[in-house]
Every structure is written in structure tokens, then in C-alpha cells.
Amino acid sequence: MRITAKDSSKALTSTPLLAVLAAEGEAPALPRGVKLPAAAEKDFSGKARSDRMADATAGPAERVLLLGIGKEPGAEELRRAAARAVKAAKKLGLSSLRIQCTAAAAKAWGGASAAGQALAEGAGMGAYVYTGGKSKPKKSALKQCVLAGPDAKFRAGVRDGAALAEANVFARDLQNMAGNQMTPRDLAAAARKLSTRSPRISCRVMDEAAMKKMKMGLLLGVSRGSVEPARLIHLVYRPKGKAKRKVALVGKGLTFDAGGISLKPSAKMDEMRYDMSGSAAVLGAFHALAKLDVPVEVHGVVPTSENLADGMATKPGDIHTAMDGTTVEILNTDAEGRLILGDALCYVRKRIKPDTAIDLATLTGAVVVGLGHEISGMYTTTDNLRDRLTAAGETTGEAVWPLPLLDAHKRNLRGGPADLRNINVPNIGGGSIAGAQFLHHFIGDEIEWSHLDIAGTAWGAESRDYVGGRGGTGVGTRLLMQYLKSL
Ligand code: BES
Ligand code: ZN
Ligand code: ZN
Questions:
Q1: Quick one: angle between helices 337-347 and 431-443, nearest 10?
Q2: Is 52 helix (H, G, I), strand (E, B) or coil?
Q3: Parallel, antiparallel, or unpaired: how do β-strands 96-100 and 61-68 relate?
Q4: Which atom of ligand 1 is nearest to the CA of 362?
Q5: Nearest ligand to the C-alpha of residue 423?
Q6: What residue owns the CA closest to ligand 1's atom 9?
Q7: What are 354-374's pLDDT values in tens digits?
């Protein structure tokens, strides 16, 4: 489906479906000539997510969908409404639709640029269905979504929103692919392909021999139990002018996490194909960076591996040595994300030396218990980064919530035969915090850093019309782009 922007002041050309958003208590602003049956307008309250479809009685639109966006609607209501319009058009088998936004509405809904962006994001994300597993995927009849709005700002917003939606669904495709269709080598190929989309993006992929040279014993220790070789992906985006800052984005790329010798239970084990969602968020951000300029140098680092249990696999109690020389006792082979990220963070600290590093990982079941599926756990070493990410979460609808990084939790990882253990001693709780503390050891204190535990939000979220319900959510991509834009 193509998303295009049009000038809403021009006369409406014929369309099979016209979608008109209206806030609660306001009459829907129908374009000149469009008439609806009296009952349709009477039924419609504008309450959030209460919509009314009607056949037009006059004018160039065959049907009109009135979309309720509630009192004082923000970007999230616009995203949701645009997604419902697109879904309604699909359900009817239509080939196109038009979503209407007047100048007054754009102003009331956060400004023309923000309204255009939110509508395009919602339309683009709402149109997504994963078909990668089918031999003959059903083709959608819907080819075009026209977003009609007031001015050049609106149209620029639409362009950005469409690029962000494409990046989100790109990330969701990576997530949704089956474990055997998206292996570490496949993920590396996807990253390489991204670098061909823009001359500003370059990509280097390191194999296990290169990891051995760099002494990445933790990453190699996870990969030992699998026939599929691990990879370390390093993407770079260089901005047009002089870079204001250098930021590293790091994503956990476990293309399948069976737990290793500390094997997971079989129920829902298939969901562990989503254990590369952190890497999908990072690759998604680079997908967007090919289209949208930011004034920062961005590095994307993805350690990617499977976590299986063959005869070579790491055993509980084994000790491996990280790139920075830290020895780690692997008490539970299922706490593998922090291991591959540990070496990746050493690589970031030693080779990239960014001003800021942000990692995203489906790291712990504990964060799902604590925060559920709608909010990601956020750890930060500075208040500045906490505030920026919180603001980015509010703008994008990808909420984050701060969790503590206190010395009180640090000592729980010490005390075994090695420098560190990879888990807390059992039954003391704070599982998500333990994961964050483990990672903190490897990035150190010199680089501003945040860890986002996205185990709850990467999939399994409730449906928000444009995302959620079944399948991956692509969480993180839009959040990271919003953060980069804020710098
Ligand atoms: N990938 C899992 C975390 C996970 C669990 C994500 C459930 C999404 C849903 C991670 O590698 C893991 O297994 N973590 C363990 C850590 C424990 C052994 C300390 C966990 O959370 O159970
Ligand atoms: Zn695990
Ligand atoms: Zn995992």
C-alpha cells in the first residue's frame, strides 16, 4: 500500500472510502458536497474508538467512515484511527481510501506535521500482515492510502511517518520469521542489504574466527551449542554535516533461544524466535535512517546467535572469559542474552567509544511480571538519557518506565568461583535488575548508557489497532528514531 499526501483544500476526487476523524463533541468536518444519512451523524459521538460507517447520499465519496478520536486527541489516537480506516478498507476489499484532516483539526491534534506523521504511521503500520510463512500469500487489494491535509508541514510529516511505518514493519517481519528462516546468517544478510539502501550506511559482519581474535568468549560460549555459526553485525550511519554526537544502538539477536542445557519448557517455546527483537529494533532504526536524516553518527551493533543444547554446548558451572578479560560462571545457560550483549558492549566501549550507548533486549521474564506487555523496562546511567527516552516513549506510544541501577543489587552477581556469575543466587528476585547490572559491568561508567528490557513489549501486547495482538510489535525502532531526532 502506497501512502501519499494531498492538499485537503482542493476539491475531493472520487474515492471508494473517505475517512473523517472527529473529536468527541465535535461535528465531523465533511468535505464540501459530501452528504450522509442523518442517522449516521446522529449515531456518531466522537468517543475514542467508536466509529460509524455509512454510504454517502451525495458527493464524490462512495462511503464515509466517521472515526471517533475522543477528547483532546493526541498522536496515539490519530495512529489508531488511521489504522482502523485502513483495516476497514481492506475488509471491504477496496483498492484505495482517503483520510481527511482539515487545517483546524491538524492544529487541534498537535500541529500539521505531527498529525501528518501520526496518520501515516498508523496507516502504514495498520496495513501490516505477516505472510512470510505462506506458500501463496493472499495479496491485499488495497493499493493506495491518500492522506489529505492542510499544508507543506503536513505533507513532510506524512513522508516521515510513512518511512517510520515502513521501518516498523520491516522490524516486525524480521521478528515474525520462523527460527529456521531467520538464523544469525540471515540476520547478517538483512543488515548487509540495509547498507545498500543508502550511501550513508555501511555494514561489517564478523564471523566466529573474528570473534575468537577479539576474545569474545561469552558470545562464542552461547553459540557453541548450535551448528549455526554466530555473527557480530556492525552498521554505521554517517550524517550529512559534522556529527553532533556518536550513539551506539545495540540489539540482542538470539534468533532462537531454547535455553541451552538449562532447557526451557516446551509450552510456547516457539515464541523464542522473537528473542532477536532487540536486533530487529536496531535494524529497523537503520531502515529508517536510510530515509530520514539525523545529525548524529549512529552505530548499530548486533551480536547474533542461537542458544541450543548439543554436545558442545556450555554446561551450567562452565566459566567463559569476556572480551575485556572478565571471567563469568554460567550458572544458567538460559541467561544467554546478557552474555552475548556483554561482549557486544565491550566491543562498543573499546572499538566505537560512543558518547551514548543504548541496548535493547528481550532479556528477562521478570520484566514481563513487573511491567507487563505495554511498557518496557528502562535502566539509565544519567537522568538526561532517562528523560529523553521517556519523552520519546510518550511521543511514539512506545512507553518506557525507569527501573533502578543500584549498588545494592550489584553484589548479588559476585561471590562464585569466577569474577561474575550470570544470574543472581536463586530466589532473591529482581531478575530484570540483575540482567541490567550484569550488562553495566561491561559497558562501564564512562559512556552514558541505557538498557531497555523489551521482553514484554516485543510481542504479546494488546492490540492498539496499528500494532499488538498477534506477532511482533517492532517495538524500539520508532522510539530510537525519536530519541535520535531529539538530539
Ligand atoms: N529470552 C529470555 C527472556 C524472555 C522470557 C523473554 C520470556 C520473553 C519472554 C532470556 O534469555 C531468559 O531466558 N532469561 C531467563 C533468565 C533467568 C535464567 C535468570 C528468564 O527470564 O527466565
Ligand atoms: Zn534465555
Ligand atoms: Zn533469551
A1: 20
A2: strand
A3: unpaired
A4: 6
A5: 1
A6: 365
A7: 999 999 999 999 999 999 999
3-state SS class at 179: coil
Instruction: Choose the residue to mutate in 264, 364, 459, 473 for probing ligand 1, maximizing ligand atoms within 8 Å of C-beta.
Output: 364
- CB under 5 Å of ion ligand 2: residues: 257, 334, 336
Closest ligand 1 atom, residue 366 Cα = 21
CATH tag, 2-133+141-148? 3.40.220.10
pLDDT in tens, 120-175: 999 999 999 999 999 999 999 999 999 999 999 999 999 999 999 999 999 999 99
**Average pLDDT rounded to a whole number, residues 396-414:** 94
Q: What's the grid cell of residue 364? A: 528477562
- How is residue 178 written as a grid cell? 520462523
Q: Would you name the residues annotated as active-site residues?
A: 264, 338
**Structure confidence by residue, pLDDT tens digits, 22-61:** 999 999 999 999 999 999 999 999 999 999 999 999 999 9
Three cell numbers written together for 119: 496518520
How do strand 96-100 and strand 52-55 relate by DSSP bridges? unpaired
Ligand that lies nearest to the alpha carbon of residue 252, given by its number in the listed order: 3
- Ligand 1 centroid–CA 269 distance in Å is 11
Residue 100's DSSP bridge partners are 20, 148
Task: Provide the residue ranges of all domains of the chain, joining segments of one domain with +.
Answer: 2-133+141-148, 179-486
Q: What is the dihedral of CA 103, 108, 109, 115, to 10 degrees?
A: 20
- Residue 275 Cα to ligand 3 midpoint, Å, equals 5
> Number of C-alpha atoms within 13 angstroms, CB side, residue 12?
28
Residue whose Cα lies nearest atom 22 of ligand 1: it is 365
The C-alpha atoms of residue 15 and residue 30 are separated, in whole angstroms, by 14
Q: Which CATH class name applies to 179-486?
A: alpha beta
